[in-house]
Amino acid sequence: MRSEKALLAVDVQNDFCPGGALAVPEGDKIIPAINKYIEIFSKNKLPVFASRDWHPARTKHFKKFGGQWPKHCIQNTKGAEFHPALKLPKEAIILSKGMDPGKESYSVFQSVDSGGTGFLVLLSDSGIRELFIGGLATDYCVRWSVLDALKFGFKVWLLTDAIKGVNLKPEDSEEAIAEMVSRGAKKTNFAQLGKKA
Ligand code: VGL
């Protein structure tokens, strides 16, 4: 069935959760909410996309090679796996990003599926016009993905009960949310969703 709506769960990976290499404080707390969204989208036969940071061992994204971040989400390591509590259906489309050692990529619009097709092409090919976005981290990959989605003309619902931020500065997530909203994202949560999915 063609549908105009899809769910995007951003980077719900071990390394972004407590105990991981780049843990988002309480990052794992959003997983029950993400699972509820996954369930409702699956039930309604709506596409579920799940992105992952998928870095080579050497990339300029890492401090050691000139970047900002500790090593994290290295391909085929435990840290790069989706968190074990995340319940992805077998139909979920896995998107990988951050493979280019010379580039920083925070936006899911820089990701590809297992066959190498970019996210924007996948969305266009399936007629999707509306994205419901949650995941990690509010102030980085969620923010850049939402801003790109708006730039490309998608309607964006920010799932406020299913995002958490890194907050290098304590106000980073709040500022990111305000920016996403000012560019056109709409905030919603699970209780309000019944009317939209
Ligand atoms: C992310 C910091 C560094 C994210 C990725 O997924 O939000 N944050 N790399």
Description:
- The protein starts with a strand and ends with a helix.
- The chain is globular and about 45 Å long.
- With 197 residues, the protein is α/β, with parallel strands linked by helices.
- α3 (138-151) packs parallel to α4.
- The chain has a 6-stranded parallel beta sheet with strand order 3-2-1-4-5-6, sandwiched between helices.
- The chain is built from 5 helices and 6 strands; from the N terminus they run βαββαβαβαβα.
- The structure holds pyrazine-2-carboxylic acid.
- Pyrazine-2-carboxylic acid binds at residues 11, 16, 22, 53, 69, 136-137, 140-141, 166.
Can you give keywords for this protein?
197 residues; alpha/beta; 6-stranded parallel beta sheet; 5 helices; 25% helix; globular; binds pyrazine-2-carboxylic acid
How much of the sequence is in beta strands? 15-25%
Order of helices and strands: EHEEHEHEHEH
Count all strands and give the number.
6
Q: What is the makeup of the main sheet?
A: 6 strands, parallel
Low-confidence stretches: none
Name the strands of the widest sheet in spatial order: 3-2-1-4-5-6
Structural class: alpha/beta
Q: Which ligands does the model contain, each kind named once?
A: pyrazine-2-carboxylic acid
Termini, distance in Å?
A: 14 Å
* Portion of residues within helices: 10-25%
